[in-house]
């Protein structure tokens, strides 16, 4: 983790934002650019899927992808890696957790992105926060059927009382940025439906 961050650091002044995602993650760059348009790269900010089960203030999902502003990335490398006592010095696993801890230690803020339905663009799971713009779980898991009996299946129910579920149509953000655990064949399907499939009569708002 630390070696990779230091390698990317040589490009610190060439870009406003730095994105990390797994190689089985599909990213829609147009939606990512749209989400970052109002964010100042000179502020120390990180963005991604908000896990909360390990780090109290939430930590990034490395699979779904996360973004650092230029200032946030520079602070992470210059002030935290191998320098701050709160920053872990081992690289064995949970890179996303350790990056989050190291970033928090030097004042980088975790900012959540929400679309016009108060849903998130980074995501991965079929639970109350599944509408993040970054999705860590695959579309298959998000929409998989639940067996009730040996030969009877039905789609999952949605608890619309949850604050991030407005109705069953808000399972995914319309401004989705990333989807994790996507195999190569599904990547082609996502690309086709996102960029080429146009149902007649539908007028797009953006």
TrEMBL record:
Mode of membrane association: Single-pass type II membrane protein
UniProt key word Membrane: yes
Keyword Transmembrane helix included in the entry's annotation: yes
Compartment(s): Membrane
GO MF entries: glycoprotein-N-acetylgalactosamine 3-beta-galactosyltransferase activity
Keyword terms, alphabetized: Membrane, Signal-anchor, Transmembrane, Transmembrane helix
Signal peptide as annotated in the record: none
A GO cellular component entry from the record: membrane
Protein name stated in the entry: N-acetylgalactosaminide beta-1,3-galactosyltransferase
Native organism: Calicophoron daubneyi
